[in-house]
Amino acid sequence: MASRIGINPATGEKISEYNRITSREALDKIAASKKEYHHWKQKTFEERATLMYALADVFDKNKEEYAQLATREMGKVIGQSRKEIEKCALVCRYYAEHASTLLADETVKTEATKSYVTFQPVGVILAVMPWNFPFYQVIRFAIPALMGGNTGVLKHASNVQGCAFAIEDAFLKAGFPKGVFMNLNVEAKDVKILIENKNIVAITLTGSDATGRSVASIAGQNLKKTVMELGGSDAYIILDDVDLEEATDLATFGRLQNNGQTCIAAKRFIVHDAIYDAFLALFTKKMKAAKMGDPTNEDVYYGPMARHDLRDELHGQVLKTIEQGGRLVLGGVIPEGKGAYYPATILVDLEPGMEAFDNELFGPAASVMRAKDDVHAVELANNSQFGLGSGVFTGNRERGEKLALQLEAGSSFVNKLVVSDPRLPFGGIKNSGYGRELAAYGIREFVNTKTIWIA
Ligand code: NAP
Questions:
Q1: What average pLDDT score do residues 146-175 get?
Q2: 190 C-alpha to center of ligand 1: Å?
């Protein structure tokens, strides 16, 4: 049987070894999930909510253990891992409280005696998830899907299998019936067989656009619904009326949080000509001063990347950009040592056609560009294959809102870094995917929106 060895990206040491299950075994688990679905869908919102509150308590109670596990497996700075677990509890409580309202029947006045829309569960949802928020990404799909009466099975990223099993265990600890949520420790190549299986009704994927294309095309062949949460290259426009200290603090954190590996991280900074030089100088100073190191140390600003191959891939993109005429202002050199570390890096003088302009840099490397004016800034921001998040930093909220409305993205924030919040929908356009998670929009993705007409 194939196994997967877990490596601590901070040290390069082996930390775990998990046996893979075969696709046959995974299909048996999916069949068990389908069987459980027939019971689970009969539960009331109140019954499901009781379990969700219990799950939130499990996250609270085991926060330190789960946070340490995430940090060990993918290198997130420990304080940010703790926040991630807190957010999981928040999502559980949000949907426990609101799911019945979000999925309440909607009466529609027609010539019928009675006509309304009702939202019914659809079955077993397959989730293919990434490692960068190893607890939260899973919870973000699972909680609304389960509150809607579906069951869920997870194919998690190979390097965070400890987290995948911990999440499965958390559901059991909270008292969920076995089968409502299950981890399938299969290889990526087996996902096709799972999608094709009759017991899987829909697929949600969070990952790269390349994986998205593959999974969506298989699902399409099988006429199964998908939600795609893919990559991003979020643009932040920095206008000439900003407080530069504040803007550069946000920019530094936005680029380095989660060791630079957040889909909605600030990746491209589009800076108004009048303040470009001052912004770049201060941003460079702060990026340089940010402390890189062991992610279990409380005082570290950012840690290693999640895997050595991902670090090498990012370095390749930086080198390619320089070859293409981009200019390196900071970083760009792999440090000595065993961990998958990559230093805070800044690239400038970028043009369309260059790697850093066209593609996502999924690590601590920032692109900084100069904009002539507001119109040019929006043009540069929208000149991207992606459309996940985006932002505007300005001293004038109205000016910021005007630009935010013109940005081609699923979210545009003014004077704040984009975050995912259970009260608001989250997702992208263009190659960042389609469909939405969270809020009412997320819980309505995996339900049968059904019309009832009583003549
Ligand atoms: P990835 O390589 O696409 O992997 C994501 C998941 O897909 C993993 O479980 C992976 O399994 C699996 N997978 C890989 N190739 C597959 C295939 N051909 N068929 C089926 N499954 C496959 O992405 P990643 O490197 O883990 O994550 C980084 C990307 O995710 C970035 O682009 C980031 O922007 C994006 N992301 C988007 C969001 C969002 O909400 N929009 C959130 C977080 C991350 P293995 O680990 O076994 O390969």
A1: 98
A2: 14
426 part of a folded domain: no
pTM assigned to the model: 0.97
pLDDT at 1: 59
Compute the distance between CA of residue 41 and CA of residue 50 in angstroms, rounded to an integer. Answer: 15
Span from the CA of 129 to the centroid of ligand 1 (angstroms): 6
The residue nearest atom 11 of ligand 1, judged by CA position, is: 157
Place of tokens 């010539």: 111
CATH number of the domain at 340, please. Answer: 3.40.309.10
CA 232–ligand 1 middle distance (angstroms): 12
185 C-beta closer than 6 A to ligand 1? no
Q: What is the pLDDT of residues 357-409, one digit of tens each?
A: 999 999 999 999 999 999 999 999 999 999 999 999 999 999 999 999 999 99
Structure-token pair, residue 228: 């795609």
| Residue 81 domain flag | yes
Selecting among 84, 263, 408, 437, the annotated active-site residue is 263
Residues 184 and 199 in one domain: yes
Is residue 76 within 8 A of residue 303, CB to CB? The reply is: yes
Q: Which ligand 1 atom lies nearest to the CA of residue 207?
A: 30
Catalytic residue status for 263: yes
Answer yes or no: do 219 and 317 share one domain: no
Q: Residue 377 in contact with residue 398, Cβ under 8 Å?
A: no
Task: Find the 406 Cα to ligand 1 centroid distance in Å.
Answer: 29
CA 96 to CA 239: how far, in whole Å? 41
Average pLDDT, rounded, for the chain = 97
Alpha carbon 33 to chain centroid distance? Answer: 25
Tell me, yes or no, if 229 is annotated catalytic: yes
**399 and 450 together in one domain:** no
* pLDDT bracket for residue 446 (50, 70, 90): very high
132 lines ligand 1 (CB under 6 A): yes
Contact 110, 118 (CB under 8 A): no
Q: To the nearest 10°, report the CA torsion of 429, 435, 440, 442.
A: -120
Rounded to whole angstroms, the Cα distance separating 414 from 182 reads 39
> What is the domain range of residue 216?
3-230+432-454
Two tokens, residue 305: 């990347």
38: which 2 tokens?
A: 């027939």
- Whether residue 215 is found in the same domain as residue 253: no
Whether the CB of 231 sits within 6 Å of ligand 1 = yes
Catalytic-role residue among 229, 360, 408, 437:
229
Residue 427 domain-assigned (yes or no): no
Query: Within 10 Å of residue 343's Cβ, how many Cβ atoms?
Result: 17
